[in-house]
């Protein structure tokens, strides 16, 4: 491929790390790369030959914002090829099948998918299911998996992949029946500590549902809109968002979360 566009979303830095790995590998292979954070206010550019969508699985399904982004793709993408890079702690719950159907409606063919295991960023699971924490992931092995996937895709002609639907997948059906804001219902006592907040803006700029808003120097969160992704807890540099039910050690403050914040600070919108 001569040009590729990576449309990405990252709530705690895991997908961000995979996007960096993919972009580096594409550039190493001579491919021109365009990066677009889908929550950026800048309009996306769809001129690239291949479209790559990178996002986390949350609540047993592709991240809400990425689903909305794909559903809003313009007619000009018809006939293009696509790849997806998915991050999650466990199984991707039929994500390739789900995304393939969405892209097909837009006339885009899904030609491959890769799953990279990341650290658990959902606070409830980090506290009560220690085995899912996977601290330090995606590690070099997982990032190399992404690079290998990109290299193979770059070296051969991209052809549509057939992804099966597994009607016996419990996780797929949990994603189907579970409301998008189901995890958010757990966090009914989210507290913003004004004295700690530096008004850096990361929490409301990265909030996938627009639940966090700013009025002057005051931030607030609409509990009805909150998806429970825990992004605000995890990326806040000063832990201005907190909740009595969980301790600081239950928040994900990993290496990639810190790097995501630094990138957003260096270049507005993460682009």
Q: Structural class of the helices, strands and pairings?
A: alpha/beta
Annotation, overall tally of beta strands? 10
Estimate what percentage of residues fall within beta strands. Answer: 15-25%
CATH topology of the largest domain: Rossmann fold
Task: Please identify the top-level CATH class of the largest domain.
Answer: Alpha Beta
Please mark out the parts with pLDDT under 50 across 5 or more consecutive residues, or reply none: none
| Domain tally | 2
Mean pLDDT figure = 90
Radius of gyration: 18 Å
Instruction: Summarize the amount of helix as a percent range.
Output: 25-40%
| Main sheet overview | 6 strands, mixed
What is the distance, rounded to the nearest whole angstrom, between the alpha carbons of the first and last residues? Answer: 21 Å
Q: From the 3D coordinates, which CATH architecture of the largest domain would you assign? A: 3-Layer(aba) Sandwich
By CATH, the superfamily of the largest domain comes out as: Flavodoxin domain
Looking at the structure, what is the overall shape?
globular
């Amino acid at each position: 491929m001569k040009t590729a566009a990576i449309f990405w979303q990252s709530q705690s830095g895991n997908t961000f790390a995979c996007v960096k790995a993919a972009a580096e590998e594409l550039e190493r292979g001579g491919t021109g790369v365009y990066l677009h954070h889908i929550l950026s206010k800048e309009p996306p550019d769809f001129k690239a030959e291949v479209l790559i969508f990178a996002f986390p699985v949350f609540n047993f399904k592709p991240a809400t914002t990425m689903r909305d982004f794909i559903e809003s793709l313009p007619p000009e993408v018809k006939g293009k090829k696509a790849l997806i890079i998915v991050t999650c702690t466990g199984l991707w719950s039929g994500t390739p099948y789900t995304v393939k159907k969405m892209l097909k409606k837009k006339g885009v063919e899904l030609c491959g998918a890769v799953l990279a295991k990341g650290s658990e960023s959902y606070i409830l699971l980090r506290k009560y299911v220690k085995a899912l924490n996977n601290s330090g992931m995606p590690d070099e092995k997982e990032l190399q998996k992404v690079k290998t996937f990109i290299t193979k895709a770059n070296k051969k002609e991209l052809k549509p992949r057939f992804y099966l639907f597994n009607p016996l997948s419990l996780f797929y059906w949990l994603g189907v029946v579970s409301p998008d804001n189901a995890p958010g219902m757990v966090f009914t006592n989210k507290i913003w500590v004004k004295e700690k907040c530096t008004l850096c803006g990361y929490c409301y700029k990265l909030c996938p549902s627009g639940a966090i808003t700013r009025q002057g120097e005051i931030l607030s969160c609409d509990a009805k809109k909150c998806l429970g992704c825990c992004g605000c807890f995890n990326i806040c540099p000063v832990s201005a968002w907190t909740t009595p039910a969980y301790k600081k050690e239950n928040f994900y403050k990993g290496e990639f979360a810190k790097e995501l914040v630094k990138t957003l600070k260096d270049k507005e919108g993460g682009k």
